[in-house]
Structure formats: C-alpha cells, structure tokens
Recover the amino acids of this structure.
C-alpha cells in the first residue's frame, strides 16, 4: 500500500528552525519526484519545494528561498525539508507528495499525498 507520512511539525518561535520528514513506502521511491506543499487556513495550497528523483534538481518558492533546504535519502525512502529563519507567515499544514519523473511546484501534477503535519510559528 502506497504511503507518504510526514513528521517533524510543531510549534516554533519566529527565527527558529524545524526539520520535516516525509517517509515513503509502497512504491518505487527513486522513480518519483517529491514535493512539499503547504496550506494555511483560508488560503490556497502553495508549492514550497520539490526535489528530483536523484536529488540533483531542486525547486523553491520565492517566499522560502535561502531559508528552506530540501534533500532526500533514497536508501531510507525519505525526503527532508530543513526550515530555518521561520516566520509567522510560514504557519501552515505541510504536505509531501510524489509524482513520477520530473519535479514541479504545481500541486495538480502530483499523484500521491500524505496526511500533512502542522507547523505553527508564533511567539
């Protein structure tokens, strides 16, 4: 059974850091690009970052460039999102998603989704 399970969310103070993990199972992980998306209450889902199958190509939304870093460990079927210098506007539910072949930041391109992990940035 195909699964994507996010973890690592929680409450963080502004300026702090958090690392999200996305653990995959039930499909050929290294054949899929992985994306991170987020959705805040009352807002549309936003593409945050994505990484290619081998990890050589990464994409970031302008709002997180220079603060977030995506990486993957295909031996562990896991993708990470390191988030630094967090801001209150980063507060959202964060989802990871998988798609075959090329990486994008367009949520409609992705076939498989996790249940999400909440990140709250507040003092």
């Amino acid at each position: 059974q195909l699964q994507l399970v996010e973890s690592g969310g929680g409450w963080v103070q502004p300026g702090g850091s958090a690392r999200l993990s996305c653990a995959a199972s039930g499909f050929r992980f290294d054949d899929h690009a992985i994306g991170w998306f987020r959705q805040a209450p009352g807002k549309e889902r936003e593409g945050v970052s994505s990484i290619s199958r081998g990890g050589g190509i990464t994409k970031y939304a302008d709002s997180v460039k220079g603060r977030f870093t995506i990486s993957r460990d295909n031996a562990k079927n896991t993708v990470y999102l390191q988030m630094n210098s967090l801001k209150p506007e980063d507060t959202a539910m964060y989802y990871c998603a998988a798609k075959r072949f090329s990486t994008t930041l367009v949520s409609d391109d992705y076939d498989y989704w996790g249940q999400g992990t909440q990140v709250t940035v507040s003092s």
